[in-house]
Write the structure tokens for this entry.
Amino acid sequence: MKDAQPNAIFLKDYQAPNYWIEKTDLVFDLHEDHAMVSASLSIRLNDDVEGLPDLVLSGIDLELKSISIDGHPLSDADYTELRDQLCVKVERQPFCLEITNRIKPRENTSLEGLYLSNGMFCTQCEAEGFRKITYYLDRPDVMSVFTTTIIADKHRYPILLSNGNDVARGEAGQGRHWVKWEDPFKKPSYLFALVAGDLQLKEDLFTTMSGRDISLRIYTEAYNIDKCDHAMRSLKKSMKWDEDVYGREYDLDLFMIVAVDHFNMGAMENKGLNIFNSSCVLTSPKTATDSCYQRVEGVVGHEYFHNWSGNRVTCRDWFQLSLKEGFTVFRDSEFSADMNSRGVKRIQDVSMLRTAQFDEDSGPMAHAVRPESFIEIANFYTLTIYEKGAEVVRMIHSILGDDLFRKGSDLYFERHDGQAVTCEDFVRAMEDASGKDLTQFRLWYSQAGTPVLDVSDAFDEAAGEYTLTIKQSCPPTPGQHVKKPFHIPVRIGLLDNEGLPVTLNAQGSDEVTLDIRRSEETYTFTGLSAKPLPSLLRGFSAPVRLNYPYSTTDLIFLMQHDTDSFNRWDATQRLAMAEINSVIEALGNHQHPTINPALISAWGEVLADQSLDQAVKAEMLNLPSEASIAEQRQSINPDLIHRARKQVKRAIAKTHQMAFLALWKKLSVKKPYKPEATDIAERALKNTCLGYLVTLDNLQYLELASDQYRQSGNMTDQLAGLVAVVNAERHEQALIDTLLDDFLATYRGDANVMDQWFSVQANSPTLGTLAHVLSLMEHEQFDASSPNKVRALVGAFTRNMVQFHKTDGSGYQFLAELVIEFDRKNPQLAARLIQPLTRWKKYEENYQAPMKKALTSIKALPDLSTDVFEVVTKSLSTH
Ligand code: TRP
Ligand code: ZN
């Protein structure tokens, strides 16, 4: 546990370190109940520092065994041990500090530092986990050359891994052996990694653009080794893509990935030794869905791309986190777009951003892409840092264009190779290489909140002139009450009465990007014979909310005619959202809602449209998710959101059931599973049809779903069949039980597949009651020490609009108790689990009180982790 009243740290207080650690030599002696860590650190004074200040090293939960300088043991007067620090008197420099300390990996449940997962030792050091391994200057601007020697029992731990290349190995007596690793590249401590276990290896080779052969290795437990092919293919594609698109070559002779079951996040880019949540590595047609396959490809790419954007060029301090994460998410999303369907990737990314990042940016934890302060850095691995950060890089890309952006990234990597730098350094490289002025653009890094664009237009018939007026504003966020106008690139087109693109300038373009800079901008287009319909913010060219008074007819016209596939999709979402809103109003007033026939026939046209890309079609048919609807409401009533969405969905299904059925049949052809764009699109579309059909109370459709569950040879279709049966309007408990039991019998023991089994139940508005969730927590397949399991069951339950949000507060109380319990074991997980409660102010009154009560009961506890303390305090704050 950390201090009861932790303090915030501020970007403005940044100071370079007093000392540098040029070389770090580590020896790990691993035992069953403890590990001994010996560190030998070559330390030199920072030239800019006067005198010889004390050397202050971070250290948490460490037992100091010995300490000496240049071979001379220190006396008690030479150093002080504080709670999380070790202060050492310095009399001369440079010097070598030798420290030995003992740690207890088996007792480490935080999954930070050195811990055990299924009997295998592994590490997670980002952001500040290295201080749980040994005393260190655990900050990213201290970069050091590491060697690591691991000593362990040969039979239990035949595989001993660390960063870089293995340079020596030998016997250590008593059945023990050792391996020494050397990483020639300077790195901060957060990129350190160690793995020891009984692992199998899948090996391959990649020849780089300069002709060097790189050995690629994926390590897993023996029973999973046949599930690594897709990850390996993804790795080779990533390496090739980074050469082709960014000119970046891999630098070590070896690249390793290790899959572990107990992991707080998706994966970690440790130099040469990436450690992955097994859910982001393992696939097979029978056990992984299409979205798992795509996630594996994306995450493998993400971590690989960090080798340049993060490792070779790293962050000066953690306020700069988006420097590596935003840029790397932009890189991985472009990679996925190139490997699959670009249009669909954009729709999926934006839909996630608008649902979850916009929500974060309008709530109590809202922060800028480069935050000004934080209490606990682990809380800042957020959608804002990652996804909004990626949108900011995407805007730079669109302002500069392909070629200048590439010149900018070349300059950035070349200028800062081997350095720990800032977001400012990134933007300056982009400016220097392109000659573009990004002064105003920088506000995207410092101002939080989602900007709003209010667009209006006018047509002067006599002059043939069309005028667009765009006003921008940005709501206040914690600590930032007034915002300056942003530089916002808004890509637009105009459609004429026939739906044809209007030529917008002398160059004959039918699409232009408007550089919005002032709080109000006006643009005039001439030579028009009738008022056009604007297609605004094409491709979602900036992370903003855009308001324009589109009528139903306008939106249907855009759905049919827009040349921008993103905006065609967006028109469906706006149309559906307007309809769901009006159903919510009607239900709230106890009226019987009627569904606008125009919406229903528009959906019919999408269904019938032969020219549409199938994947885009599936996305267009999907109604906004409950979470997305909630985000767009002024005030949330979860029950009404659930009912309104269901009614709209059922009305569409009722009118078009023959078309849905025909399309489902047409797409239900048996063929070998391939995780490729066209096949993925067909499955998505087919399962969208199935999802509509089972909203109708009809036994025939229930049987369709259960047949699909039983007969499909892949997890995507099987799971969709199960979800359809579980959530069908025609509720057949016996059938649900049979399928759930069958699923359990088939996949018991496969941790990642069982996660789906827990989620399907916890998500269900009928099955996912609190009582059922509590009983599932006692299930033999549940494992409270696995974040994946906790997220699959409890996380899914907290997103269940019907069962979690009960006005008696039972769901909230349950979550509060669980968060308190988890906080003692895994604070990072606990702080993420509370998230759904933090938006209490956005809910209708009868939900607010019990939500607030649950938060208050957490806050009342002494000894909260900094993680939970920060989230709870900020969400209860009145600012
Ligand atoms: N750098 C990792 C990534 O984005 C993030 C990460 C992995 C992480 N594990 C973590 C962050 C644990 C905080 C704590 O790829
Ligand atoms: Zn990352």
Observations:
- Residues 9-198 form a domain with the Immunoglobulin-like fold (CATH 2.60.40.1730).
- The chain is about 40% helix and 20% strand.
